[in-house]
Design goal:
The chain is an alpha+beta fold. It has one helix and eleven strands.
């Protein structure tokens, strides 16, 4: 009888140990599940961050590529044509349209040293991503076609008191434009070449307009 009681007691102890072990396993499983969930959320968050970073990198690369895109020189243009000019140092990018060209024998408060004044009425438009002063664009020059001799435009400092001349000046935000006149004191010729940068200048993208004296008003 005593032997049977010992066996029963032993069996009860075994059952208690088994129940306790199962309870511990369940608690460990429940505790580990939130950790797995947190890890999954962290991984998902990191993946999203990496994806956004990749998208930003691609966008910046595309913008950089657009800014660095090389624009060919534009030569042999006609009056009325529009060309894109890119300066060398600051790399300002702007469009220039030569609207008309005219002769003047004299100008108010300006001394004529050569044959004639040639006035080029132009429109300058900022097509860059940054603002700049219109007065900082490349100074154009005028010469006889195929002569390789170019005379730069008269400095605006000498034209401040000339009421009939509108200077190319003022702050230009992206998309803004300004119309003004460049004045040249040159020898009269049959054919002219108006150049925003020529072969001998350090300029990233240049443009040249050709016209005859018959086209000068």
């Amino acid at each position: 009888m005593i032997k049977n009681k010992r066996i029963v007691t032993l069996l009860m102890l075994i059952v208690v140990f088994l129940l306790a072990a199962c309870s511990n396993d369940n608690e460990q499983t429940e505790e580990s599940e939130p950790a797995d969930t947190e890890q999954n959320e962290t991984d998902t968050s990191e993946e999203g961050t990496e994806s956004e970073s990749d998208d930003e990198a691609v966008t910046e690369e595309e913008e950089s590529s657009n800014n660095d895109e090389y624009i060919e020189h534009q030569l042999g243009l006609n009056i009325g044509d529009t060309a894109t000019v890119v300066s060398s140092t600051e790399e300002y990018k702007y469009e220039v349209t030569v609207n008309e060209v005219s002769y003047r024998d004299e100008l108010e408060n300006v001394t004529l040293y050569e044959d004639i004044f040639v006035l080029a009425d132009v429109t300058v438009k900022n097509v860059d991503e940054k603002s700049f002063d219109a007065a900082d664009i490349f100074t154009p020059a005028l010469g006889e076609l195929d002569s390789n001799k170019y005379i730069p435009a008269i400095s605006p400092d000498y034209l401040q008191n000339t009421s009939e001349i509108t200077l190319v000046e003022g702050e230009l935000a992206p998309g803004d434009s300004v119309e003004g006149t460049f004045v040249f004191d040159v020898d009269q010729a049959k054919q002219y070449n108006l150049a925003f940068g020529h072969a001998g200048d350090q300029i990233k993208t240049r443009a040249e307009w050709e016209f005859s004296e018959d086209e000068v008003q």
